Amino acid sequence: MRMIKYLFGQAWSQLKLQRLLTVVSILGTALTICLIMVIVMQQQIKVVPFAPESNRDRLLHVKYASVDIKKGEEYSGYQNGLVGYKTAKECFKELKSAEAVTVYSMILPMQVKLPLTMGQGVDVKQTDASFFRVFDFSFVDGKPYTKADSDAGLPVAVITESVAKYLYNITAVSGKEMLINEVPYRIVGVVKDVSSLAPTAYAQVWIPLLSTQITTSNQYSWFDGLSGALSVSILAKQKSDFETIRAECARNIKAFNTSIVGYRVHFRGQPDDQLTMSQRKWANQGPDMKSYYRNLLIIILILLLVPAINLSSMTQSRLRQRVAEIGVRRSFGATRGGIMGQIIAENLVLTFIAAFVGLAFCFLFATVWGSSLFAESRMMYLNTAPTVEWQMLFNASTFIYAFFFSLLLNLLSSGLPAWKASKVSIVNALTGKIH
């Protein structure tokens, strides 16, 4: 421990003697760490838990379904889209191996207003009562609608703070009424605004699934309710239950297909975990996760290698100014390993300082310009931009990634110069030659 403390203390003293190179190196490394962490955060924001999707590590999702039509003995002419109510109910709703299962609609653009006032467009999601068990909303007033309310399709609603303030200028509005597309609904609860970066839970107004004709209307339901406008999220008791749940889903799907005539429903590998679901863009094909990981790795390697080459050159420049010092140390018995350790320690101190600076830049950039940074997560019909809060960004994995990339960048940029410097003969070093 004393030796490590000595090495780092000496490294810090050397860095202070070459302030210009130190500042340039820190800023260059900080920018690299910042760029890498922005990319990491863009991926993390899709999978890390944050309210109201705090259970992402225990969630499985069924986002799409495909329906094949039977022609003779063969199936063809399939329909791809979201899940129908009949399919969701029979295949997933009553899973015994899950803690909770919720069925909900896609975002539906509607208008809310009070009588004799102008309306405002909002994003509405129709759900069952289990939706508020699967996702952990923060209620500031009232409570969610009940299973009885949902099963009866009663005109009740949970709304966000911003909608409550738009309607009544206050948030304590449970028990009051509003109009949704000119239909009276009673407000039963008010929750904190939800970022669209939590797309599964996101809406501005939530109403019971059966309170409109979304499950039966020809606009939202096809093939006798097999295909529709719904999705399913399954909350496992623990992550290790995923395969058990998938096996039960497979049995239910097989039994369901046996019971229907003239059609076949399949889900292309679903239910998905959170990451796989975030990469599933189309109903007619599954995500290529191998390509996803490969492309991400290539991008990060490029961002690491380019600055590592530049920083390696800066390290080489510092060593040219200190070659005589290296010769003196070697002549007094310093080992090659000791020389290498000193150079790497100096770079490590610099890299860690730069990592904290780069991480601060990244958090600042993500917080201030988050709506642009995460714009790809925003669907065109949403009425709100994707807001970013510190809870989404500050987590242990972010700092672990930053530490890992800093260490890797340090080894890439200082390893070769340190090895070359340690190989210089004493005579060459004393005469100022680094080769």
Description of the molecule:
The chain has helices at 2-17, 19-44, 85-93, 131-134, 147-152, 161-168, 242-259, 274-279, 289-321, 323-331, 336-368, 370-373, 390-393, 396-423, 426-430, and strands spanning 59-62, 65-71, 74-83, 100-105, 108-113, 120-127, 139-142, 156-160, 177-180, 183-191, 205-208, 227-228, 230-235, 263-266. Strands 5-6-11-8-10-9 form a six-stranded mixed barrel. It folds into two domains: 2-52 and 290-430, no CATH class; 64-271, no CATH class. With 435 residues, the protein is α+β, with helices and mostly antiparallel strands. The longest helix is centred in the last third of the chain and has 33 residues, at 289-321.
- Beta strand count: 14
Shape: elongated
Distance from first to last alpha carbon: 33 Å
What is the radius of gyration?
29 Å
List the helices and strands and how they pair.
Blueprint: H1 2-17, H2 19-44, E1 59-62, E2 65-71, E3 74-83, H3 85-93, E4 100-105, E5 108-113, E6 120-127, H4 131-134, E7 139-142, H5 147-152, E8 156-160, H6 161-168, E9 177-180, E10 183-191, E11 205-208, E12 227-228, E13 230-235, H7 242-259, E14 263-266, H8 274-279, H9 289-321, H10 323-331, H11 336-368, H12 370-373, H13 390-393, H14 396-423, H15 426-430
Parallel strand pairs: 6-11, 8-10
Antiparallel strand pairs: 1-13, 2-3, 2-14, 3-12, 4-13, 5-6, 5-9, 7-10, 8-11, 9-10
